[in-house]
Amino acid sequence: MEQENEIIIYQSQDGTIKVDVLFSEETVWLTQTQIGSLFGKAKSTISEHIKNIFEEGELNETMVVRKFRTTTQHGAIEDKTQSHEVNYYNLDVIISVGYRVKSVQGTQFRIWL
């Protein structure tokens, strides 16, 4: 049986943050870029925190990272799209990063869950 993926839209209480959240395998999944948007931090900051989470053994990378096929606009060619695999991180990673960056936005997201 094929598992269906669902997109849920998260919007912060003040409306300043809006993220499309992928729901699959009974958890939520976000890319590093989405996690950065969620917490109001640069992608490089999120990447560093995720690297540390795995290096410190806080989470097992093979259990919390999945590749999902994503379709995006193809560069400068109008109306052309391209599809590629992107790493998505599950709720365990999102929460771990949220505690490390200590953002108000992260607290709002945890309340929303």
Key descriptive features of the protein:
single chain; 113 residues; alpha+beta
**Order of helical and strand elements:** EEEHHHEEHH
Distance between the termini: 27 Å
Strand order of the largest sheet: 1-2-3-5-4
Count of DSSP strands? 5
On the 0-100 scale, what is the average pLDDT?
83
Radius of gyration: 15 Å
- Total DSSP helices: 5
Biggest sheet descriptor: 5 strands, antiparallel
Give the low-pLDDT segments. none
Report the sheet-strand fraction: 25-35%
Structural class: alpha+beta
Q: What level of helicity do the residues show? A: 25-40%
Apparent shape: globular
Count of structural domains: 1
How would you describe this structure to a colleague?
β2 and β3 form a beta hairpin. This protein has helices spanning 32-39, 43-55, 61-64, 91-101, 104-112, and strands at residues 6-11, 18-24, 27-30, 65-73, 81-90. α1 (32-39) packs across α2 and α2 crosses α4 (91-101). The protein has one domain (6-112). It is an alpha+beta fold and 113 residues long. The mean pLDDT is 83. It is globular and about 40 Å long. It has five helices and five strands. It has a five-stranded antiparallel sheet.
Secondary structure elements and their pairing?
Layout: E1 6-11, E2 18-24, E3 27-30, H1 32-39, H2 43-55, H3 61-64, E4 65-73, E5 81-90, H4 91-101, H5 104-112
Antiparallel strand pairs: 1-2, 2-3, 3-5, 4-5
